[in-house]
Amino acid sequence: MFSFVCHLDQGGRLDDLLTGEIVGNPQGPAFNFERFRGGPLFRVAGTLPDDHLFIGHTVCPGFENLASKPSWWRQTSFHVPGYDCLHEEESYRHTPVDLATYDFTPIKVPAMDRAAHRGRGAPIALVYRNPVDQAASYFRYCQAHVSPAYHTFRGRPVADMSFREYLFEAALTSYARQFVSYQDQAARYPGLVKLVPYECLIDRPIETLTTLLDHFSTTRRSWPMLPAAVRLARKEHMRAIEGRLGRSLDGTRNGRNSQSHMRPSDDAEREQPMDSGLRDEAISVLSDMGVDCRLFAWPAQRAPSIRLAYEDDQRPRKHASR
């Protein structure tokens, strides 16, 4: 989504493969999907104040430097790799970059952590699902993963575990470790760190993305191409792009017969009622670890899947110019 906004904001063009709509400047450069690898860095200079935007899973910058981390945090670990992308590698001298003329750039993680620890540096945001839904999604992801680091847990195939076992033995601790880092930093520096429920992004995408873009810009401004970018990022269109490329856009699946990383069942599952007993147990466990569960969206009736209806004054046109 942010990639589309940046490309269009800087005079680029995107074609809707399903409708034929031309979005942006018809004479502008086309979005280069062949070169797109899914980050984790994206060049955003010209649209946002900073040169690069990191999009991925990581412990909140600045939290690593806190001497007051809870004892359970120090005594536990993430159950799979990838929860803390900015602190797992020995070197970040060659970090992949998208939307740039270069392929790699260095990240100075210690300097970034020191700045965030003092409430300085680039703005930070966490878009988070409620822990039960996130665990259910990751449970399926790990079951199908080719790497033993993901499809086994403590020597046992994840496919042999019940969801309840996976939730309480693995997923909740990892969720809490990551979430608490942002919760703590947001409490210390509310102007620097923003917490955004995933449900807001799904149900009110334009409003929520405007809030995020304004946060990263450190000022309020108009984003005229955002509604078009949201339409282009709808699931069926993203799957059409992946089908043409023969790989997933997040870089996790390759080959003409590979599946999209976007699961068609997610929308239907959002509309199913959540097991209230499981939810309450999860809340109890997370609360004991200091997670503020009031920040989660626990809808009794699931909201419908992402609403990408055109605004009243925005109907499909052959192209949308800047």
Automatic annotation (TrEMBL):
Ranges of compositional bias, category Basic and acidic residues: 263-276
Domain of life: Bacteria
Region feature (Disordered): 243-276
Name by which UniProt lists this protein: Sulfotransferase domain-containing protein
Provenance organism: Reyranella humidisoli
